[in-house]
Amino acid sequence: MGQARPAARRPHSPDPGAQSAPESALKVLGTDGLFLFSSLDTDQDMYISPEEFKPIAEKLTGSVPVASYEEEELPHDPSEETLTIEARFQPLLTETMTKSKDGFLGVSRLALSGLRNWTTAASPSAAFAARHFRPFLPPPGQELGQPWWIIPGELSVFTGYLSNNRFYPPPPKGKEVIIHRLLSMFHPRPFVKTRFAPQGTVACLTAISDSYYTVMFRIHAEFQLSEPPDFPFWFSPGQFTGHIILSKDATHIRDFRLFVPNHRSLNVDMEWLYGASETSNMEVDIGYVPQMELEAVGPSVPSVILDEDGNMIDSRLPSGEPLQFVFEEIKWHQELSWEEAARRLEVAMYPFKKVNYLPFTEAFDRARAEKKLVHSILLWGALDDQSCGSGRTLRETVLESPPILTLLNESFISTWSLVKELEDLQTQQENPLHRQLAGLHLEKYSFPVEMMICLPNGTVVHHINANYFLDITSMKPEDMENNNVFSFSSSFEDPSTATYMQFLREGLRRGLPLLQP
């Protein structure tokens, strides 16, 4: 009996009158059908392979999907240790979404069905072999606080973004496997690499002992909450962070925690399509998820307990209570604070954070003390969320430019804030000065992002909207001169850098004479 083989593609001579494959598919399938076909055709070769069809087969047959992982096969060790991890999840508070203010007017209930139905963690508890956490081990010779990439990003401002029109994550490979398995405890469709830069997972050592490491990490991942025939709905937390304490050979895990920070009023971006094509209308919103957390219930323990002679010991005492393990105290030789480690990981993900962006009110206190102007960015969505479109454009085109970094560090105190945070600050009665600072900012704000230069008392001496800024930088130099906008008499070749430099210098020209001596 012959073996089944993939269908071969026959070479053919191009026919000038023939339709292209996408045009032919559109004619046969229609717009909605082509949208579904394209979402499954992950390599965009107009051919659905068995692997690409697998999610639909599982959906139609009702079979439980079997995870497909590509990782190094290790021989099973009966004495290896197991780590039990619990998931804690509180669903997104829909009342924190911007669109809740008008009762979700114009938003179909079907569009939000994946979000509304996600009320519990997919796996409340799971057991992991300790060796599966080996990707968290640092490279040889890694120094305390020096970041390294567990999962490197593949995107930049020059490579663009990945498709929105996808439902099912690609099978994870290598070091992606453990991240995928962990995030799958929250939801069955995690993407370990986001559609936008910065992607991936970065880590750094925060403590070193003779036998153990403490590793802090930051993950940029997102989830797809919809399945066909619904349109894609992307759920993108600002970040996952956490730590792991593991032995230097990864045979024992002392502690593990992973979570979405919840100290700000908003921590999740959401995007969903309203049509069957990559260019269809997309809705964008932000919101707050109170808790997305994974935590080890205790240190990893042996799966099988052996005595000195190699005989198996019952894991429970005669009373029925489990055996209690005693772990030695770890004596650390080198340590780095959580705050400093978080800052270094943040800078690794976002080079623009080489400038210290202070909390809003603290920035104005510092400006008064140092007699400097405040460079303030007010956003609808967070500046350091990987999926916030306006903040992302501003970061990639301007704020990571070395000349801009230098001028900001030398001449300004910088801060960025969310509109909602300043609206909340404006309603507080305890501190009239803080209310005034927030009010002066909100008076100048226009959606989606407003960049401002302010005096230490909050007076805005210069400001520019992100949309206007992007319009300017997309103009030809001669058009800019003719329209009397920013001059291009600059040594910078990049129009974005030149324009933002002009904005900052104009702010200095207007603001420095007004600073109190």
Question: What this model shows, in words?
Answer:
It contains 13 helices and 22 strands. The radius of gyration is 27 Å and the shape is globular. Mean pLDDT is 83; it is low at 1-14, 64-70 and 485-490. The strands form four sheets. Strands 1, 2, 3, 5, 6, 9, 10, 13, 14 and 17 form a ten-stranded antiparallel β-sheet that branches. With 517 residues, it is of the alpha+beta class.
Fraction of residues in helices? 25-40%
Average pLDDT metric? 83
Q: Low-confidence parts lasting 5 or more residues at pLDDT below 50?
A: 1-14, 64-70, 485-490
Q: What is the CA-based Rg, rounded?
A: 27 Å
The main β sheet shows up as: 10 strands, antiparallel
Count of strand segments: 22
Q: Which structural traits does this protein have?
A:
alpha+beta, ten-stranded antiparallel sheet, 23% strand, globular, Selenoprotein N, EF_hand_dom
Short description:
Helix content is 27%, strand content 23%. It has 517 residues and is α+β, with helices and mostly antiparallel strands. Helix 9 (419-427) crosses helix 10 and helix 11 packs across helix 13.
Walk me through the topology.
Blueprint lengths: L20 H20 L9 H12 L19 E10 L22 H5 L7 E5 L18 E4 L24 H8 L6 E2 L8 E10 L2 E9 L1 E3 L8 E5 L2 E8 L5 E7 L8 E6 L8 E6 L3 E6 L4 E2 L2 E2 L5 E2 L18 E4 L2 H12 L7 E2 L1 H11 L2 E7 L9 H11 L2 H10 E7 H9 L4 H13 L4 E6 L5 E6 H8 L3 H6 L12 H17 L6
Parallel strand pairs: 18-20, 19-20
Antiparallel strand pairs: 1-2, 1-13, 1-14, 3-5, 4-7, 5-6, 5-17, 6-9, 7-8, 8-11, 9-10, 10-13, 11-12, 15-16, 19-21, 21-22
